[in-house]
Amino acid sequence: MNEQITPFFNSIEIQEAELKLAKQSGAYAQNLEYFFAIEFLLSYKGSKDTVASYRRELEKLFLWTRMVAKRTIKSLGRAEIEEFIDFCKKPPASWIGQKVANRFTIAGEKLVPNPKWRPFVNKMGSIYKLSDSGVKALFGILNSYFGFLIQQEYLIVNPVTLIRQKKRFLRTTQELPRIRRISNTAKNYLIAEAEKMAQENPRAHERTLFIIKALLSMYLRISELTENERWVPKMKDFYKDSDGRWWYYTIGKGNKEGEISVSDEMLKALERYRIHLKLPPLPSIDDEMPLIPKHKNRTTGITSTRQIRVIVQKCYDRTIESLLKDEKIEEANEMRHATVHWLRHTGISEDIKSGRPREHVRDDARHSSSVITDRYVDISKADRHRSAKNRNILMVS
Question: How many distinct structural domains can be found in the chain?
């Protein structure tokens, strides 16, 4: 367990080139398990999000197999898969990072493993817990992977299918998973800090301000701001209907189309952003400019969700400093744990709390069911306890 924890798999482009070279040189047959894993990941290359999630779990499996089980993938049976699932539910501290880090970094002119990278990440500062949905996703990915190895005639039996009592790996709980969001105080500080950054350095941070307002106001997912195989967000995706109402068109999770109503505040944010880019205040129906252009080449949009995270994190860091300066310790700690996705949760939650019709929020959030939207109705433990405090079991006649 003292062995250095280093990643197996690089970007999909590097893996594809590596696979091609291995087949040409004869190295493919010498490391079949590794190259089968690459071929498995490449079979999903049409979706970067899918590749990223599958790579993340295969990375853990390969590391555990080599470093803990001291086995090969081919030798894993039902018992070993169960041990691996248990390991993922409670990994050792040395396998857990406090923030997401790149798998590889550049040293000189070479790409080398990043010593700060860890296969598990826990930004919450509490005990690491793998959620039930995480366990189910892990089972699904492992099942697909071992099924692929059977198709390649490398395995005869899928060890995942031999596990008959998968429910033992799941917790039973009365409450649904908690929706993570930032408080009103932290949100107001965040927006104020983004506006300060935009004022101090417009070239760098007018884009930052627009991104944060779009994530909050339109409940966008981070992938809906970046160019990918299924979607290229452009200025023309903001459009006005025949009644003068503004909408934003997107293709999001599950390749699902959606129309999001644009508030007056969001429309002002768009106008400010476009004026900064030296564009007319509002887009036309044929405006092909990328919604979030790169600084160096504005004809190209950002393609990496990681880059969006870095942009937002810089504003988070400034917000934390500002909160600490004003001795708002609780809110600062909250922001330390916040991810970009919390902005979507915050926008949805605040709109529901403000009294906006729930079905309107549901449609703008592009939830498949009102049941999902209902999870954002915030009945805190404190409120629940307060309502029960003076409850009396004696009947009053």
Answer: 2
Query: For the CA atoms of 14, 23, 109, 229, what is the dihedral angle to 10 degrees?
Result: -10
Q: Classify strands 120-121 and 96-97 as parallel, antiparallel or unpaired.
A: parallel
Q: Give the burial class of 61: count Cβ atoms within 10 A of its Cβ; 0-12 exposed, 13-18 middle, 19 or more buried.
A: buried
- The string of pLDDT tens digits covering residues 277-333 is 999 999 999 999 999 999 888 888 898 888 899 999 999 999 999 999 999 999 998
Residue 177 falls within a domain, yes or no? no
Alpha-helical segments (H) within 152-239: 184-200, 202-217
Q: Is residue 53 in a domain?
A: yes
Its pTM stands at 0.63
Q: Tens digit of pLDDT for each residue in 44-99? A: 887 777 888 899 999 999 999 999 999 999 999 999 999 999 999 999 999 998 88
Q: How many Cα neighbours within 13 Å face the side chain of 13?
A: 0
| Lookup: tokens for 32 | 């079949």
- The CATH code of the domain that includes 345 is 1.10.443.10
Q: Is the pLDDT of residue 107 over 90?
A: no
Cα 61 to chain centroid distance, Å, stands at 21
For 128, the domain range is 12-169
Three-class secondary structure assignment of 70-117: CCCHHHCCHHHHHHHHHHHHCCCHHHEECCCCCCEEEECCEEEECCCC
DSSP string for residues in 291-332: SSB-SS-TTSB---HHHHHHHHHHHHHHHHHHHHHTT-HHHH
Same domain as 218, residue 131: no
The pLDDT of residue 321: 95
